[in-house]
Amino acid sequence: MLWRVRFASFAAGFASAAALAMYMLQKDVQTSHRILADQAARYHTALEERISRLENLTANLSSPDSQTSPIDQVA
User: Fold this and answer.
1) CA–CA separation, 75 vs 4, rounded Å?
2) Per-residue DSSP letters for 37-49?
3) Element of type H or E holding 71
4) Residue 70, CA distances (Å) to 28, 59, 60 in order
5) Which pLDDT band, with edges at 50, 70 and 90, does 74 fall under?
6) Please, what's the b/e burial string for 35-61 (b: 16 or more CB within 10 A of its CB; e: otherwise)?
7) Distance separating the N- and C-terminal Cα atoms of the chain
8) pTM over 0.70
9) For residue 63, what is the enclosing H or E element?
10) Which H or E element spans position 20?
11) CA distance 73 to 75
């Protein structure tokens, strides 16, 4: 009888500790995912801006009526 009580107490404690650990792990994973998604969005925005500037620069270089030098356009 005493062993059943001890085992039941151990099982209840183990189950509650496992549930708490899973909750904490899920929370950490969600936080990390949000941080990485925000960072990727910032990198994507910066890359889009760089591509747009390069496209504008090449368009200005290829146009025959451009009067300014490409160095002046970058700054």
Assistant:
1) 79
2) HHHHHHHHHHHHH
3) helix 70-74
4) 48, 11, 8
5) low
6) eeeeeeeeeeeeeeeeeeeeeeeeeee
7) 84
8) no
9) none
10) helix 2-62
11) 6
Is residue 60 within 8 Å of residue 70, measured between CB atoms? Answer: yes
Q: How many CB atoms lie within 10 A of CB 73?
A: 13
Q: Which amino acid is at 67?
A: Q
Q: Scan for tokens 């591509």, then name that residue.
A: 51
User: What tens digit of pLDDT does each residue of 25-70 get?
Assistant: 999 999 999 999 999 999 999 999 999 999 999 988 887 665 555 5
**What is the residue type of 52?**
S
Structure tokens at 67: 């009067």
